[in-house]
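Example record for the data management plan.
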Amino acid sequence: MDPVQAQDAHHGWVNMALDTIPRMRRSHEAPSRTPDDDLPREEAQRTLRARLASDVAEGHIEPPLLPSVALELMRLTSTGAADPRDLAALIERDQMIAAKLLRAANSAMFAASREITSLGGAVNRLGVLGVRDVVLAIALKGIVVRDEPYHRIMVRLWEHALACAAISKLVAGLARVPTEEAFLAGLLHDIGKPTLLISLMTMNQETGGDLRDVGRAMFRIEALIDEFHTAAGTLVAERWLLPTQCRLAIAHHHAPNASRIVRVVHVADETSRALTAEREEGAWPAMTEDRIRAALEHACLALSQREFETLLIRADKAREDAVQAFA
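Corresponding structural encoding:
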């Protein structure tokens, strides 16, 4: 099994994609036969992978650019003693973020019973950490890549991050895990993926390669992202000074450790993927249930039958409410 397969064995679609990529035999054997028109693509793939591996190992990966308001907000909330009035004054500096924050605060996601029209009211409703989470979600959605297929991949990454954030909060509540960091950990668990997508797009343009065709090329882009995303995400977490539990979720969400937040995010990640497969690929509901049960078992996170049924019923609505809040 090659390194990409070893990293992503749990993703069947990645394995199928990689099975179509011609490989070189052992050094003492003749190379496998490859159609001439595939050689430029294979060379571009090897070049990009080598550069990506080097940049990740040497810490040369640049995190996505966030608005100054979002970065300052993370700094203010990192001590746990932020003054709500300071948060409102900070957010007022960016009218786009302020408007979207108000929209989110008045959405079904936050069980809004009456409309609020001021930033102070939004801060009071969401709380300090809630404001942080919402502003970061707004900032991440603002990371736009216009070239295809990079744009489509970025949209999918955003949708999955938001779904995982909402479901993480739901799972944490059901599993009696403190929910303060659940949303943020779920939102940023795959932050290495958009980071690498931007790097790959830039590298591909610099090397003159063209991975923007359809079919196998798209799988190759996503296979590279999957292979290196936890390492890249760890670099981003360090530079953004993210909370400890969030950093753990980024590093270990595929192999949950002793942290209960990491376990929650693992279950939310698999739940989101299972629901997407059911909705977009026609998977049977029984397959969704089996996948979520397997994730709970892997994470050593116990739910009663009633709690499990509540998760099944409420997970998709949690995702839809989050999408509406940040539409």
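Summary line stored alongside the record: Residues 66 and 139 are 6 Å apart (CA to CA).
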